[in-house]
Amino acid sequence: MPQHVSVLPAEVLHWLDPQPGQVIVDATAGAGGHSALLWQRIQPGGMLIALDQDPMMLAIAQQRLGEAPVRWFHRNFDDLPSVLAEVGVTHVDAILADIGFCSDQLADLSRGLSFQTDGPLDMRLDPTSGEPASAMLRRCTERELADIFWQYGEERHSRRVAKRIVETRKKTTIATSGQLADLVRSCVPRSKGHGIDPATRVFQGLRIAVNDELGALERLLRAAPECLKPNGRLAIISFHSLEDRIVKQAFRGNPESVKELMRKPVQASEEEIAANPRARSAKLRVGQKIG
Ligand SMILES: C[S@@+](CC[C@H](N)C(=O)[O-])C[C@H]1O[C@@H](n2cnc3c(N)ncnc32)[C@H](O)[C@@H]1O
Fold first, then answer.
1. Closest CA to 81 of 228, 214, 223
2. 279 by DSSP, 3-state: which?
3. 124 HSE (CA, 13 A, CB side)
4. How many degrees, rounded to 5, is the angle at CA 108 between CA 104 and CA 109?
5. Ligand 1 site, residue 101, Cβ cutoff 6 A
6. Is any ligand 1 atom within 6 A of the Cβ of residue 52?
């Protein structure tokens, strides 16, 4: 059973308004929750093209969708135009990207995504490519590490953490999430009034850097308008302000090809947040290709 609970399910259906016979891309299949909802709405005759960069999540989504003839792709969503070319589709009716990671990935100890558990410090959402976080901690200069924690994690003590990493790696390898979490806790004070673990921001920054998450989002936003039919819709669910800013700027900065459908992002209701605390930070923005 997947652990992940899809956020904003009713809102995604409302804003994408999928209809029988349509062609829809779920760019982040994850545990298949949104895919299943979209699939039901586009039958009979519809086509769902589902991507995920993580083969583990793709397998979970495939199991959830059962026999449904979804077109599955183990790919980064920044590769969407070539995926569509492989399927032989030029334009689609809608694209959904629910970015970030799934609860199932956080719970997978072999990823080292969580600062609450101890596992190899890998952090790749696609374990088949790229550089694990432990290698990045060995390779980057102190300045580069500080920039990663500051720019992607908004960690105020970024320089202090980077310095401690460089001192520590001279003596030992930082190979596990537990080691990194303890290192950060030893030099970042717990912020007053906030219950959050001092390691939260450093882990976020490192994960974003390892997976080039903001770069992939920017490339998807650049490519998506070309992939949509006139009046087709692009829905992005983001989980922190860095991502939401990129989505907002992409929609507003491209008024000749995309119309922003809402000024303020759609957020989860109190009921949804009570049932699924992860929904608290979810923000949905939808753009429509100019007809
Ligand atoms: C929040 S989960 C999606 C959950 C899904 N909407 C559901 O209802 O179960 C995010 C998923 O997107 C995938 N992902 C993140 N960035 C990606 C990218 N650049 N390309 C492809 N998949 C990506 C992750 O591997 C993860 O499985």
1. 223
2. helix
3. 17
4. 155
5. yes
6. yes
Instruction: Decide: helix, strand or coil at residue 144.
Output: helix
Cβ of residue 272 lying under 6 Å from some atom of ligand 1: no
- Assess whether the C-beta atom of 155 lies below 6 angstroms from ligand 1: no
What is the CATH architecture assignment of 127-210? Orthogonal Bundle (1.10)
Span between the terminal Cα atoms of the chain, in Å: 41
Does CATH place domain 9-104+213-289 in 3.40.50.150? yes
Give yes or no for residue 100 CB within 6 A of ligand 1: yes
* Residue 177 CA, ligand 1 centroid: distance in Å: 22
276 close to ligand 1 (CB < 6 Angstrom): no
Sequence-distant (6+) residues with CB within 8 A of 209 are 136, 148, 152
Closest ligand 1 atom number to CA of residue 26: 6
134 lines ligand 1 (CB under 6 A): no
Which atom from ligand 1 is nearest to the alpha carbon of 7? 8
| pLDDT at site 186 | 95
pLDDT band at 194 (very low <50, low <70, confident <90, very high): low
**Which of 7-11, 188-192, 196-200 is modeled with the greatest confidence?**
7-11
Each residue's pLDDT tens digit, 111-151: 999 999 999 999 999 999 999 999 999 999 999 999 999 99
Ligand 1 atom at minimum distance from 28 CA? 12
User: What are the residue boundaries of the structural domains of the chain, listed by start?
Assistant: 9-104+213-289, 127-210
